[in-house]
Amino acid sequence: MAAIALHRAILIGFLTFCDCQRHGSFEDQYMGCYQDSVDRALEFRQYKLYTGTNSNGKCIRECKAGNECYCGSRYDYGRLGLRQNECSIRCLRNIEETCGGNWFIQIYSVCPTGKYKGAGDAVINDKPNCENECHCKALPCLYSNGRCTDGCATGWKGHACNERDVAECEGARGIDYNQDCHKCINFTCECNQQYERTNSTCMDANECNGTKGVDYQQDCHDCVNTNGNYYTCECRAGYELDQGTNQTCIDIVECDGTKGVEYDHNCHTCLNTIGSYTCECRAGFELDPITNQTCIDVVECDGIRGVDYDRNCDTCINIDGSYTCECRDGYELDPSTQQKCIDIDECEATKGRDYDQDCHKCVNLIGRYTCICDENYKLDPGTNKTCIDINECLGERGVDYDHNCHICTNTKGSYTCDCAKGYGLHPNGESCVDHSKHSSAYTSITVIMGIIVILLFLFTTIFAVRFLTRKQRRGENNTATVLSAIAREPAEYLELLGLVAHVKYIPVHANNDSPQIHSKQFSDPEILHQREYDDIGVAALKQTPGATSGNTPETHYIAMDSPKKHTNPTVSQSDKPKPKATLSKTTKTMANTSDEKLGFAQVDGFRGKWSFLAFQCPKGSDAVEKFWKLVNDRKIQSVVLLEDVSSKVLPAVESVGSFNDIKVICKEEWQKRGIKKFTVTLNDEQLCEEAEFANKGGICVLTVDHKLTNKDIISLRQNLISSERSPTCAIMCKDGQQFSGFFISVNCMLDMADEGNKIDIVQGLQQFKNVRPDFAPTDEQILLLSHLAKDYGSYGKELK
Questions:
Q1: Runs of H (alpha helix) within 477-601
Q2: Among 12-26, 352-366, 745-759, 773-787, which is the least confidently predicted range?
Q3: What is the pLDDT of residue 272?
Q4: Are residues 699 and 739 in the same domain?
Q5: Which of 27, 275, 602, 741 has the highest count of CB atoms within 10 angstroms of its CB?
Q6: If you write DSSP's letter for every residue of 677-729 in order, what string do you get?
Q7: pTM above 0.85?
Q8: Which among 389, 382, 387, 423 has a CA at the least distance from the CA of 406?
Q9: Average pLDDT rounded to a whole number, residues 243-272
Q10: Is there a single domain that holds both residue 668 and residue 769?
Q11: Which of 535, 550, 575 is at the close of a domain?
Q12: Contact residues for 680 (Cβ-Cβ < 8 A; gap 6+)
């Protein structure tokens, strides 16, 4: 605390409070805020105001305070204690200044330290008259005469301590002048650099009390003053003192140091930052969010399957910096990634060890395998992994085993027969024959078989020679042959090969300019020879007797009796043609309902008994999905797949095929004589709710992977009828019409026969041609039609 310089000091009374001290223009004369009591800090009260305005200047000028002002010359005004923050009450009617506090006074010297009263009045122009200098040791000099109560400062002398004492600088340092005066010259001190003169001494210049960035460095975190040696700094963590200046803090580059010492041992790649560092972490690790200075393991297994770890990882196992998997049966750990489970292809491994010994053809599935079984075997429904023998003897006689097998005995992959007395086992081992009719054949079986082989060889040789000769002749005389065929059987040729229904006979004229019509008949398809099969393309239809030059033109057709009535139906040769079987008047052939993407057409069968949808093999999963949705929506319960198109629309057996949104589940039932039967169920939330039958009884799918024969069509038709399903059937082949049209046409013809009508081949073919006008049967199919009577008479009866 500095003492007041004059003999008068002031006590400022209080009226209002504020949160800080305000001194007006007398800041440099302020000594401090001191405790007061009834034993006043200063001895004289100059005035006490109740009205008017009080201020520090008024009290200094009049030595009267305000509303109380005390004056005095005592230097122990601080005896009751310094309380700098207690003088916060505003002056009476003067809010710009504070006037002490509750029993606290603000002490001012009348003149600033080192000054005292000059000539004239005590106050001039509202300011104290303080014109003269004094140089006291510590306390202010007296206001009235400048006397120093504690003596003159070094280098000064006289009553008012304002005369130079020359002898001091010639004396001893620390005795005649101040110890801290670096160089005494003419009663004053000159100070070294980084020191400042204060009265007659040199004091260290404390840069740290100055402004950061001005008096000391901006990057000095905590300034520490040093005596005469400028200053130094204390630095925060991550920084160090610049050894070049010792006055600024610079960043520590931890990453240049030793791993595990300057930066964390688990920091994979150290990245320096200002005042610190952070890390880049390897895959499988992440930056510790608490310290940002170490890498910690990412526990992928706590995350989301398919996001944080592979979707095909069955059981995720965390390891440091990564993860691996435990796989369920049928899967193994991917050796390349060690992070997902992949299917084990058992079928690539050893039979009897990796897949069942009795699995005939192993088919790999996701997570397991199944089998394709040889003919007369089926997939074991218990395991779906082995083939078991089909016991034909438990089936239907005439269907599952031969009608003429008296007592069926199952064998592995086949069966044999025990025959009744008088019968013997046929060489095929699957039927019984009458000894009375075939004894000689059995006794001479070896000779007969030899003769048959020789005859077959000769027949094949003769046929090949004739075929090549006829082919060359047809190539040379193509036009003449066709004209000759038209001349012989004009109407029949146009009806069968051109599929023009109801073609009238071309009349035979009397003159030689008109073509002469000839009739070619095939009395019994069972005895047709190769030459006649070749001619079937020219004249396949039997001419009705009585057609002559003068006849009224009529429609002709091939007809045969129903096999219900005849064991061996033949082509009719009656003189009166039976009226042609026609469609019901109330049943119309449906218009061509087609979809270009799927390529299908809808055709009604004979008298509307069946409704067929002929499809082209779809291209792409979108079209396959649309096919199965259409099958489901139209409640189609029977599907026939021809020309091996099953691989395009059916998944592997016992697996689920996904065609976009629809799932197809396929189960193989049996395979016989080149025909396979599957049961298909569909699964999709968006499928038609009214067609949920597909998921209950399943869809019957029959497949043929070779060219159609009459026996194939008869067998397929028999299975469709016996399944007792909806009469709507979907047929699919590669081009959508050639095999489908032939299949539908033959079905129409056989429906005619089943109702007791004669089969009209032209009308049967015309059913499909009404919808697909460009359909025409091939020569091979025409040849098959010529055998239809015999095949349905024998093979149809056997199936029944």
A1: 478-488, 490-497, 530-535
A2: 12-26
A3: 94
A4: yes
A5: 741
A6: EEEEEEE-TTS-GGGGGGGTT-EEEEEE-S---HHHHHHHHHHHHHTT--SEE
A7: no
A8: 423
A9: 94
A10: yes
A11: 535
A12: 639, 650, 664, 665, 666, 667, 694, 698, 699, 701
